[in-house]
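Notes from the pairing session

We agreed to fold both candidates in a single pass and log them together. This is the raw record for the first candidate, unedited. Please don't reformat it; downstream parsing expects exactly this layout.

Candidate A
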Amino acid sequence: MLDRRRRRTDYLEVLLRTAASLGWLAIFGLQILFWVAAPELDTGIVRYHGIEIRHHWQAQWVQWLPLSLAACTLFTLLALGVRPFRSRRRSDPKRVHLVILLGLTVIGYAVYWMQILGNTA
């Protein structure tokens, strides 16, 4: 009886893993968007050679940052919401990476509000 139960596909586990994976992909995409949209760094070598750099945020990429943050938050909260229905035993994984992902998303919101919206006001 125990073997039959374990061979069955657990749809909540598949949903949890898919949502967690999509959340991590969204935070990775957010990092790439932030890197592309951010102003370029003014380093000593750039000043020495007189290379012109961009000092402003690129608007066409900045508009996608809140959407990426929202997707990451949605997938993380979905995975955190499924976890209590799935984890019934003490030996089940605690899914600490989801809490870390949610923390990174909150930090992303803080950076968005302070850096980007603070510079446009």
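Candidate B (folded immediately after A)
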Amino acid sequence: MNGSLDVLVVRGFAMREGRGKWACCYEVRLATARDEPLLYRGELHGRSFASESAAVLAAREAGEREALLRVDSIRAQMLALHAYCSINDG
């Protein structure tokens, strides 16, 4: 995971849905000293993979993409709020 996501933990796991089909599941959690509160959980269903480990890797990659989207969204919101406050304070 890239440096801007160091405060997040992404876990991927897979659950069999049928012959060669896997549900790729992921969790995005906040990395803290004591616990890791859940921020987001997602799933990709009906994907074909040769093995469970390939499905887990795909799940983790999907989770990292989702985490990056969420961080970018929060960053944009913070910049917009800062710009709004700067305009209204001046």
